[in-house]
Amino acid sequence: MPLNPNLNSLAYFEAVARTGRVTDAAAELGVSTAAVSQQLKQLEEQWGVKLFRRQDRRLSLTLDGEMLFQTTTAAFRMIRGARSAVLRQSDSRQLSMRCSPSFAVRWLTPRLKDFLDLNPEWGVRVDASPDFSDFETEAMDLDLRYGSGNWPGLHSECVINDYVIPLCSPDYRDRMRDVSDDPARQLAASRLIHSVKALYQWDLWLAVQGIDMPVEQAPLRFDRSSMAIQLARDGAGVVLDSVTLAHDELQRGTLVPLSSSFPAVEFPAYWIVCPTRHMNRRIVRLFIDWLRDRGALFQAASRRSVEDAGCAIRPATPGEPGLL
């Protein structure tokens, strides 16, 4: 038996097994019935088994034929599905991406019109999902991910460095200043808002700062940064989260650093991730070039906002786990 069976013969076999008739399979495949019969004969000779028996002018599968059909029909169904997905994407001239939810809402969407104006002939599909794409089974061009950059076997490129600093509403800051002039004591008296999927968590930040906090009696924990940031803006407490996501609030003054004595920690946070082969697609290259440009401009503006708020900036170090 050949190690590599003839795929053409398997396709003819699958069509006959599924339709039950050589004539129906031939019509579906657009070939003659003689061609189908010849391929079936060759396949049975190659495999050394009988695949069909004839019953009432129809063909039925033998036990060996049924075993082969279960495998081939599943394989060809997957191939047809993949082909349809590729053709749909190609025909619709669409860029498909998956994006971390809060980044999609707070950063990408407000800037996306600029990309569409530059590329009006292209459509864009964005799935705002925390789930990473399976590029082998899903028709996704790329992911925009918040993370540490560890995606083995994939092209990954940081487009925005983030800054993390304790933020709160101006009223909440003033209330904590009434408690004490010492920023550490202000923080100890504050209610902490936890963004549980952020790379930089309160326990790490407090340890680096050498601040001991009392045991939290009613912790506030959210799995979306947008929710944690909103709650801090409403005056419910202090959030340790992405300046990238809170940039508009920081510029408008609806969020401010709890204390300018706390430095902002800088680390690579927002990434383009995709298989290297996807970089050959023109729309992917256009989008990545656009994202690099907008990311660089934004990062410069974000850095200025932190500095204008009076905070120093220090890079994260290898001693800060979860980041590097």
Can you give a write-up of this model?
Belongs to the LysR transcriptional regulatory family. Pfam families: HTH_1 (PF00126), LysR_substrate (PF03466). The structure is a single chain. This protein has 324 residues and is α/β, with parallel strands linked by helices. The protein folds into three domains: 7-91, Arc Repressor Mutant, subunit A (Orthogonal Bundle); 92-143 and 273-294, 3-Layer(aba) Sandwich (D-Maltodextrin-Binding Protein, domain 2); 161-270 and 301-315, Periplasmic binding protein-like II (D-Maltodextrin-Binding Protein, domain 2, 3-Layer(aba) Sandwich), CATH 3.40.190.10. The chain has eleven helices and twelve strands. The strands form two sheets. Strands 3, 4, 5, 6, 7, 8, 9, 10, 11 and 12 form a ten-stranded mixed β-sheet that branches. A two-stranded antiparallel ribbon has the order 1-2. β3, α5 (101-118) and β4 form a beta-alpha-beta unit. α1 (7-19) crosses α2, α1 (7-19) crosses α4 and α2 crosses α3 (33-47). The model has no long low-confidence stretch (mean pLDDT 88).
| Percent of residues in beta strands | 15-25%
Per CATH, the architecture of the largest domain is 3-Layer(aba) Sandwich
By CATH reckoning, the class of the largest domain would read Alpha Beta
Q: What overall form do the CA principal axes indicate?
A: elongated
CA-CA gap between termini: 53 Å
| CATH fourth-tier homologous superfamily of the largest domain | Periplasmic binding protein-like II
- CATH-defined fold name of the largest domain: D-Maltodextrin-Binding Protein, domain 2
The largest sheet, given as strand count, sense and whether it forms a barrel, is: 10 strands, mixed
Query: Structurally, how many domains make up the residues?
Result: 3
Round the mean pLDDT to the nearest integer and report it.
88
Total beta-strand segments: 12
Unreliable spans: none
The succession of helices and strands, N to C, reads: HHHEEHEHEEEHHEHEHEHEEHE
Number of helical regions: 11
Helix percent reads 40-55%
* Radius of gyration using CA atoms only: 29 Å
Structural class, by secondary structure, is alpha/beta
Family: Belongs to the LysR transcriptional regulatory family.
Keywords: DNA-binding, Transcription, Transcription regulation
Domain HTH lysR-type: 5-62
Protein name: LysR substrate-binding domain-containing protein
